[in-house]
Amino acid sequence: MLTSVAGRPVEGRGYSQLKNMELGYLNSVRKQFEYYKSVGEKTFDQLDEGDFFWQFNEESNSIAIIVNHLSGNMKSRWTDFLTSDGEKEWRNRDSEFESVIRSKEELLIKWNDGWKCLFEALDSINLENFKTKIFIRNQGHSIVEAVNRQFAHYSYHIGQIVYIGRMLKGNAWKSLTIPKGESANFNTVKFSKGKHDGHFSDDLK
Questions:
Q1: Cα–Cα distance between 69 and 187 in angstroms, integer?
Q2: 180 secondary structure, DSSP code
Q3: What is the DSSP code (8-state) at residue 165?
């Protein structure tokens, strides 16, 4: 059980507030990861097999290459998240940017394996180990810093996936969030509910 912060005892109301903040953070960041995972998958659902391997030029990354990189990063960062450096000795980062994925089926396996590793690691974090220092390339991070670092990285690459998908589908693209021209209607529905809790993505699924 967490009993101190910065060497000072934590108990009573202060401890309860801190506990709620930590649990609230873990719940919120998991929802955020789930949201961006769904954004990627909604893009995949609109693509033909060949779309996953399209490259603007030789120096640009296809969706398949981006997924290969995401999977490699996730497996390295989140395997033994609390106990080993996030840059594993067995990782070959350079190979993640090569065209090694050959089919949509293989792509989805890598995608799901990476996310499975991530969510299992998130589930291993609790109040007892929340103050564990996480190392990435020998640089120390708090758990919040390490998790936020990966969240920003993944949302950046998933944004790339969406952008490529939208370019490829053109007028056939189906909006993943609020459709163009529907912002006013969406806001009307949201505000009609009054003050309420929940996650912003609940209304975008």
A1: 37
A2: T
A3: H
**pLDDT tier, 178 (very low <50, low <70, confident <90, very high otherwise):** confident
What gap in Å lies between CA 149 and CA 146, rounded to an integer?
5
pLDDT tens digits along 96-131: 999 999 999 999 999 999 999 999 999 999 999 999
Which H/E stretch holds residue 70?
Answer: helix 63-78
- Scanning the structure block, which residue is given the tokens 């912060």? 5
**Residue 18 burial class via C-beta count within 10 angstroms: exposed 0-12, middle 13-18, buried 19 and up:** middle
> Which tokens go with 107?
């792509």
Q: Which domains does the chain have, with CATH numbers?
A: 10-177 (1.20.120.450)
Q: Which residues pair with 9 in a beta bridge?
A: 4
Q: Name the token pair of 27.
A: 């719940």
CA 17 to chain centre: 27
